[in-house]
């Protein structure tokens, strides 16, 4: 028998010893199974696809029951996720099934943000689990796991290629959830077109680096069937809850004028393959992959975002208490630093503003000094003008006085000469 | 929580148990068993009998062959396979327990060992990069009681009291072949009485919905603590090869349920409750350890505002997250306040500047006006002066003209006067 994970882990530290009789621990798998059966199983499916792809019908067909829901209209303003939980039982196995539907996907004119609500929903479930896992008093073994274990991506049966919305969405989801792409309403495509369509889809997924879920081939008991199914991906499905009489049996089918498409006929569609892979063979693996791969990735990113890191990658584990305390101190230090920085920033701003204002004040004073100087100059000029005017005035006065004096003298002289003349005449 | 739905046909998830079975076999199983008891109580022999192997052999001698001064904790790991199922079995032995004269605190190394395994698991669970976590936690502790026939020794009570909340304790009466059935019965009753008296919580078998199972469980409960005999030797009894202890008076068969409770122990420990022992360790003992450990961590850093001794259900991360949010709110408030103060001060200063600018402007205007007025005055004065001067000059010119005229007249007169005699002279 191939070596188990445990054996590999033990490695050199354990030696194999023979048993001389039947001890009885070969009942361990049964003990584990009993425990699981008693505890009940849990599975969560997310259906992503445009309105009218037949998501609800397919779920009803897969689980042989009628789940909730009215068919939605195309007028949703954004993408919302609606989830419903059901308790199913088959023989002694109880399954808590949650079906999550994307409502309004692909209906908007601008679909750029369509994937966002889906990613947020998936992350929210991871977050809820992470929070529970990190609690001090936690109850993990009775926690209702809401993480999405499988995402059925419904591809429109155009027959050509994937839509860009499909590629974008799947690329965003492939590291968060197990994606199983299916071609919806595949009774609209002929067999030859279907083969080409599948090839085109697969190559587009590969060339865009989209990681879809591969059925595991490491367990010999299921390796063969899984690897053969892997080559049939994406599954072309038809869903129907209506029954049609075929021969003497009632089968699930869709009746057309030109014939009847039987859901469970492997020649008509891959429904049986999907059911086999999703439910009967790999349900537990889907759940395990979600827990050990997708959830761990989310957890790792979240913790790294918060600044946690493993100090020593491989060897000695460090003390948890030390880590938390160190983390806390670092954290408090960071907060204080931020506080300090903010204070400093304010001090800086105050300084700058003060300098600005001082500068403005200085400019103002300079301006007025200049004006004052101008004013002084003006005044001076005015004074000069005044002075010159005064000088002229004085000069004029002098001239005037001199002239008057002269005139007086002349008058006197003239008067006297006239007098003289007159006198002489008289003589 | 969810709606009950009836299925109208076979879906197929009834195969889930098979899927789980498959995966578990592929992964393999692990189990860690600890044996505690004084030397010579047959612990190693019992292990060999339980697992039908020579865990301790000539090559790997058990601890009982070595004299220990202090209590040691020793681990042996073996890989056993049966029916396609692989089991990694770890036996933890505690040689030296109870062997000293002064056995105070001889349980401490054992407690430390259990805690260190919890710590290892907690650390690997708390890593950012988690890989497959090996589970080396102690799943079960078989405690060997010496077959005195009287009751529990103080050491027994002390040990079980200290360990019952850390590990699944299953007390066993060792070397039961030294007690007669009646003595054994009484001994068991006495022990159970004392266990209840001291409120020791030994491992309890879980109740199930199954009637049949519950009856079996009840039967086992009545026989607690199990009285066991172990043997490394195979003896032929009535043509059968059995494990047993040969005495002159007969053979005490290990697997004979009339002789001892070994088969009950084996069936319970290995065949039916191994998984439950692991689950109880994981869900109860480990969680207790973890919550105590993490509460201590957060408590160290927590404000004095929080009530002392309050075990919060929040994770340290959530707590830090909350503190971060509080701090962000505080910072925002602080920023807003600082901003307000800043704005106010700036407004004040700017206002002051404006006022002084207005003042200076006003003064400047005034001075300008003043100057302009003076200018105007001057202009007026000048104008008047110019006018006066002009007038005067005009007047002067007039006077001058007059004077000139008079002078010319005079001159002519004079000239005429002078010329006159000449004229009179010339005429007869």
Automatic annotation (TrEMBL), chain A:
GO molecular function, one term: GTP binding
Protein name, UniProt field: Septin
Keyword Coiled coil among record annotations: yes
Entry keyword set: Coiled coil, GTP-binding, Nucleotide-binding
Sequence similarity: Belongs to the TRAFAC class TrmE-Era-EngA-EngB-Septin-like GTPase superfamily. Septin GTPase family.
Region (Disordered): 407-427
Coiled-coil portions: 321-399
Domain Septin-type G: 39-305
InterPro entries, sorted: G_SEPTIN_dom, P-loop_NTPase, Septin
Organism, as annotated: Monopterus albus (Swamp eel)
SUPFAM superfamilies per record: P-loop containing nucleoside triphosphate hydrolases
Pfam families: Septin
From TrEMBL, chain B:
Pfam family membership, one: Septin
Transmembrane spans: none
Keyword Nucleotide-binding: yes
Keywords: Cell cycle, Cell division, Cell projection, Centromere, Chromosome, Cilium, Coiled coil, Cytoplasm, Cytoskeleton, GTP-binding, Kinetochore, Mitosis, Nucleotide-binding
Subcellular localization, as worded in the UniProt entry: Chromosome, Centromere, Kinetochore; Cleavage furrow; Cytoplasm, Cytoskeleton, Cilium axoneme; Cytoplasm, Cytoskeleton, Spindle
GO cellular component: axoneme; cleavage furrow; kinetochore; midbody; septin complex; spindle
Signal peptide positions on this chain: none
An annotated GO BP: cell division
Matching PROSITE patterns: G_SEPTIN (PS51719)
Annotated spans, Disordered: 403-428
Domain Septin-type G stretches: 27-296
GO terms of molecular function: GTP binding
Domain of life: Eukaryota
Family listed: Belongs to the TRAFAC class TrmE-Era-EngA-EngB-Septin-like GTPase superfamily. Septin GTPase family.
Protein name per Swiss-Prot or TrEMBL: Septin
Species assigned in the record: Monopterus albus
């Amino acid at each position: 028998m191939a070596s188990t994970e445990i054996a590999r882990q033990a490695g050199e530290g354990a030696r194999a010893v023979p048993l001389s009789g039947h001890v009885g621990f070969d009942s361990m798998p049964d003990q584990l199974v009993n425990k699981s059966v008693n505890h009940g199983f849990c599975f969560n499916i997310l259906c992503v696809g445009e309105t009218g792809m037949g998501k609800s019908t397919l779920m009803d067909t897969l689980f042989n029951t009628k789940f909730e829901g009215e068919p939605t209209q195309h007028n949703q303003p954004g993408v919302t996720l609606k989830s419903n939980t059901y308790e199913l039982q088959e023989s002694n196995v109880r399954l808590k099934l949650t079906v999550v539907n994307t409502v309004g996907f692909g209906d908007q004119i601008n679909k750029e943000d369509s994937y966002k609500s889906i990613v947020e929903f998936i992350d929210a479930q991871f977050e809820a689990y992470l929070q529970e896992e990190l609690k001090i008093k936690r109850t993990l073994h009775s926690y209702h796991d809401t993480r999405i274990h499988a995402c059925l991506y419904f591809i429109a049966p155009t027959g050509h290629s994937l839509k860009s919305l499909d590629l974008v969405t799947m690329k965003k989801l492939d590291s968060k959830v197990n994606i199983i792409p299916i071609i919806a309403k595949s009774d609209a495509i002929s067999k030859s077109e279907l083969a080409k369509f599948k090839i085109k889809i697969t190559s587009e997924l590969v060339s865009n680096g989209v990681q879809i879920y591969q059925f595991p081939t490491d367990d010999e008991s299921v390796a063969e069937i899984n690897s053969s199914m892997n080559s049939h991906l994406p599954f072309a499905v038809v869903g129907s809850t209506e029954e049609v009489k075929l021969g003497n049996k009632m089968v699930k089918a869709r009746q057309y004028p030109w014939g009847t498409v039987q859901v469970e006929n492997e020649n008509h569609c891959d429904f049986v393959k999907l059911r086999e892979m999703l439910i009967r063979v790999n349900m537990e693996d889907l759940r395990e992959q979600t827990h050990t791969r997708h959830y761990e990735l989310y957890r790792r990113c979240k913790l790294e975002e918060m600044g946690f890191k493993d100090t020593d990658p491989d060897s000695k584990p460090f003390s948890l208490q030390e880590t938390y305390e160190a983390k806390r101190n670092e954290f408090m230090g960071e907060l204080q630093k931020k506080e300090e920085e903010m204070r400093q920033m304010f001090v800086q701003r105050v300084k700058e503003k003060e300098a600005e204002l001082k500068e403005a004040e200085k400019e103002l004073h300079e301006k007025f000094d200049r004006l004052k100087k101008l004013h002084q100059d003006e005044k001076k000029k005015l004074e000069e003008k005044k002075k010159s005017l005064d000088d002229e005035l004085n000069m004029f006065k002098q001239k005037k006085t001199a002239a008057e004096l002269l005139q007086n003298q002349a008058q006197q002289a003239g008067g006297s000469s006239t007098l003289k003349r007159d006198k002489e005449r008289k003589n | 929580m969810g709606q009950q739905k009836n299925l109208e046909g076979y879906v197929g998830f009834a195969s889930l148990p098979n899927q789980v079975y498959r995966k578990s076999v592929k992964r393999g199983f692990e189990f860690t068993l600890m044996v505690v008891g004084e030397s010579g109580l047959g612990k190693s022999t019992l292990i060999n009998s339980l697992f039908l192997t020579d865990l301790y052999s000539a090559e790997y001698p058990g601890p009982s062959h070595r004299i220990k001064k202090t209590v040691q904790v020793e681990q042996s790991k073996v890989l056993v396979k049966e029916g396609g199922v692989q089991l990694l079995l770890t036996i933890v032995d505690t040689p030296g327990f109870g062997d000293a004269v002064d056995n105070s605190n001889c349980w401490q190394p054992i407690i430390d060992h259990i805690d260190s395994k919890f710590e290892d698991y907690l650390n690997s669970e708390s890593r950012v990069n988690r890989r497959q976590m090996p589970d080396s936690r102690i799943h079960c502790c078989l405690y060997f009681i010496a077959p005195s026939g009287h009751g529990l020794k103080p050491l027994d009570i002390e040990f079980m009291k200290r360990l019952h909340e850390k590990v699944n304790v299953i007390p066993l009466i060792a070397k039961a072949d030294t007690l007669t059935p009646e003595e054994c019965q009484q001994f068991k009753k006495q022990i159970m009485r004392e266990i209840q008296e001291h409120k020791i919580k030994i491992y309890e078998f879980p109740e199930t919905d199954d009637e049949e199972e519950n009856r079996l469980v009840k039967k086992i409960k009545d026989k607690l603590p199990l009285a066991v005999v172990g043997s490394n030797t195979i003896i032929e009894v009535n043509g059968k090869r059995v494990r047993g202890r040969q005495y002159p008076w007969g053979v005490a068969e290990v697997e004979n349920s009339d002789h001892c409770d070994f088969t009950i122990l084996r069936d319970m420990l290995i065949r039916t409750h191994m998984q439950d022992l692991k689950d109880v360790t994981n869900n109860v003992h480990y969680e207790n350890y973890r919550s105590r450990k993490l509460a201590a961590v957060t408590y160290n850093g927590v404000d004095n505002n929080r009530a002392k001794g309050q075990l919060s259900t929040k994770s340290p991360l959530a707590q830090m997250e909350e503190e971060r949010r509080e701090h962000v709110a505080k910072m925002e408030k602080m920023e807003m306040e600082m901003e307000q103060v800043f704005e106010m001060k700036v407004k004040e200063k700017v206002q002051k500047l404006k006022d002084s600018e207005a003042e200076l402007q006003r003064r400047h205007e005034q001075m300008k006006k003043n100057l302009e007025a003076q200018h105007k005055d001057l202009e007026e004065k000048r104008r008047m002066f110019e006018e006066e001067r002009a007038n005067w000059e005009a007047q002067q010119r007039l006077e001058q003209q007059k004077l000139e005229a008079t002078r010319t007249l005079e001159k002519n007169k004079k000239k005429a006067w002078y010329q006159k005699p000449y004229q009179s002279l010339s005429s007869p």
